[in-house]
């Protein structure tokens, strides 16, 4: 019988959620804000610049991308209200 890992996607999802939570917690504490939506465009640009310095295979990439995407989504909604 060949090695297999049933439902590995569940483990991957948990790891992604853990990374997103860790990055979010760090960013919120660093900028002393309550939520992602409270970040300024300048702060998001700093986060984007930092993310781009990471190795393309860094597991943290997805956490920073999640914050940037959430902020962008909120900005888009405010513009189109």
Overview in brief:
The chain is mainly α and 81 residues long. It has three helices and no strands.
Distance between the termini: 57 Å
Helix fraction by DSSP (H/I, runs of at least 4): 55-70%
Extended strand count: 0
Rg (C-alpha, Å):
16 Å
Q: Can you summarize the main beta sheet?
A: none
- Broad shape: elongated
Strand content: under 5%
Model regions low in confidence, pLDDT < 50 over at least 5 residues: none
Order of helix and strand elements from N to C terminus = HHH
**Number of alpha- plus pi-helical segments:** 3
Oligomeric state of shown chains: single chain
Provide the residue-averaged pLDDT. 92
Report the structural category.
mainly alpha
General description of the model:
This protein has 81 residues and is an all-alpha fold. It has a domain at 34-81. The protein has three helices and no strands. The chain has helices at residues 8-31, 41-51, 61-79. Helix 2 packs antiparallel against helix 3 (61-79). The protein is elongated and about 55 Å long. The model has no long low-confidence stretch (mean pLDDT 92).
Topology:
Layout (H helix, E strand, L loop, with lengths): L7 H24 L9 H11 L9 H19 L2
């Amino acid at each position: 019988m060949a090695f297999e890992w049933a439902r590995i996607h569940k483990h991957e999802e948990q790891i992604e959620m853990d990374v997103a939570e860790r990055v979010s917690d760090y960013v919120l504490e660093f900028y002393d804000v309550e939520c992602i939506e409270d970040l300024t465009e300048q702060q998001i640009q700093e986060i984007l610049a930092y993310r781009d310095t990471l190795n393309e295979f860094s597991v943290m990439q997805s956490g920073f991308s999640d914050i940037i995407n959430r902020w962008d989504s909120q900005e888009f909604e405010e513009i189109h209200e």
